[in-house]
Write a structure and sequence with these properties.
- The chain has 292 residues and is an all-alpha fold.
- The protein has a domain of 108 residues: Tetratricopeptide repeat domain (Serine Threonine Protein Phosphatase 5, Tetratricopeptide repeat, Alpha Horseshoe).
- It is 62% helix and 0% strand.
- It is globular, with a radius of gyration of 23 Å.
- 38% of the residues are buried.
């Protein structure tokens, strides 16, 4: 009898939660019902294009159903580089707590989503670790907004290596400039963690040394650090080792065969920019070379 009463109370509690959630749902979309049904059918056809198109359309109308379709698009198999577009979109939505067209007149009032840093960070990291370069900048910006200068620096550095020079938004190299005769405290922290075998810190330190940011330039030492991180399975260590060997630098001879082997290891981890059609372009000299 007590067991039956307990089940009844639990069911009542769940129903209460469901009703409470329904009361906070946004107004229905102004999309015509037939168009909504067509979108839902296309969004569940098993293709990335169908799910992503449905997500973008729902988001255009400030409809939170966009989230479910971005999640579907991110999980579509067989996996391709397109999946990272959906991962990045999810990061943007969860970190900001808003849909892209929050000021759209299609719904009044626009839906208010509850931001989730954990979900947003996880989605952005998935996109970045799968090779989406936009996610590098997104993560740097998001960490900077949260006051986490060390992690913002990490993604500024990775963006710098990818595009060969620091972005204006990164505040590099001033953010790690030596203080008198000593290295910047953030650089010193990276050095300590790298010496302990932290693969992420080894990649960070390699980036600093490859470009001579915060430390004297030493591409040969940078390559050693990338390779050490890569041997531990770090996808950025693998990819950056390939880039450095493919591009060459003072103290590092160009070795396309060795670069290809590192890229293959990164590609095996779904880092799409490590595919031959991407890395072969990435190692070509830029139109303008200011210094090497």
């Amino acid at each position: 009898m007590q067991h039956r009463i307990g089940r009844t109370l639990a069911l009542g509690a769940l129903l209460g939660l469901g009703l409470s959630a329904c009361q906070t749902l946004p107004p229905p979309s102004t999309l015509p019902l037939t168009q909504q049904q067509a979108l839902e059918q296309r969004g569940t056809d098993g293709s990335f294009e169908g799910a992503f198109d449905a997500a973008e359309t729902f988001e255009r109308f400030n409809d939170p159903r966009a989230i479910a379709y971005y999640e579907r698009a991110a999980a579509v198999t067989p996996w391709t580089f397109h999946n990272t577009k959906a991962e990045e979109a999810l990061g943007r939505i969860w970190v900001s707590g808003t849909l892209r067209h929050a000021d759209s007149p299609h719904i009044d009032p626009a839906p208010v989503l509850r931001a989730s840093w954990r979900r947003g960070e996880r989605a952005y990291l998935a996109a970045a670790n799968h090779g989406n370069p936009y996610a590098f900048f997104d993560l740097a910006k998001a960490y900077r907004a949260r006051g986490d200068a060390q992690l913002a620096l990490r993604w500024d550095l990775r963006a710098m290596i990818y595009q060969r020079y620091p972005s204006r938004s990164s505040q590099l190299p001033d953010a790690v400039a030596p203080q008198g005769d000593t290295v910047h405290p953030r650089v010193a922290d990276i050095q300590r963690r790298a010496a302990r075998g932290d693969a992420e810190a080894q990649v960070d330190l390699g980036a600093l040394l490859e470009k001579g940011v915060g430390l004297p330039r030493d591409p040969a030492r940078a390559l050693q650090l990338y390779q050490r991180a890569g041997e531990q399975g770090n996808v950025f260590g693998q990819y950056f080792a390939g880039l450095l060997l493919g591009r060459s630098a003072p103290g590092v001879e160009k070795d396309a065969d060795a670069a290809a082997r590192w890229f293959a290891r990164a590609e095996a981890q779904r880092f799409y920019m490590a595919a031959p059609n991407y890395w072969e372009k990435a190692i070509k000299p830029p139109f303008f070379i200011f210094s090497e």
